[in-house]
Amino acid sequence: MGLAPRDTTAGVAVVFSPWTSAANTVAQSVAHHGRFMRFGGAPFIAVVMPENDRYVDETLAMGAWLVLDSRLLAACSTAFSTSAAAI
Predict the structure, then answer these.
(1) Please, which of 48, 52, 53, 70 could form a disulfide with 34 given CB 3.0 to 4.6 Å?
(2) What is the pTM of this model?
């Protein structure tokens, strides 16, 4: 998959369901040996530094919707910035 992280040492963006609270996002994102870095533009998206090679698979198995390359999240968040002029 093109959105999957190739190099997890650069961090990953973990996307949970939109109704996930900020507290649950943090708790779930660190449950499988990840270090929370920041939110990814919404309280259900976390940018995490995985601490082992199994992080992505374990996090997806426990309910994350997506685990993405964090650089893609940064690119998308600037492309869809609320400061952009309305069409």
Answers:
(1) 48
(2) 0.79
Q: What is the residue extent of each domain of the chain?
A: 8-79
61's tokens: 């198995």
Q: Which helix (H) or strand (E) holds 31?
A: none
Q: Tell me the C-alpha distance between 7 and 85, whole Å.
A: 34
Of the candidates 16, 56, 63, 61, the one whose C-alpha atom is nearest the C-alpha of residue 40 is: 16
Mean pLDDT by 10 residues, the chain (87 residues): 70 94 96 92 93 92 91 52 42
Asked if 49 and 37 count as a contact pair (C-beta separation under 8 A), the reply is yes
Helices (H) and strands (E) in the chain, counts: 3, 4
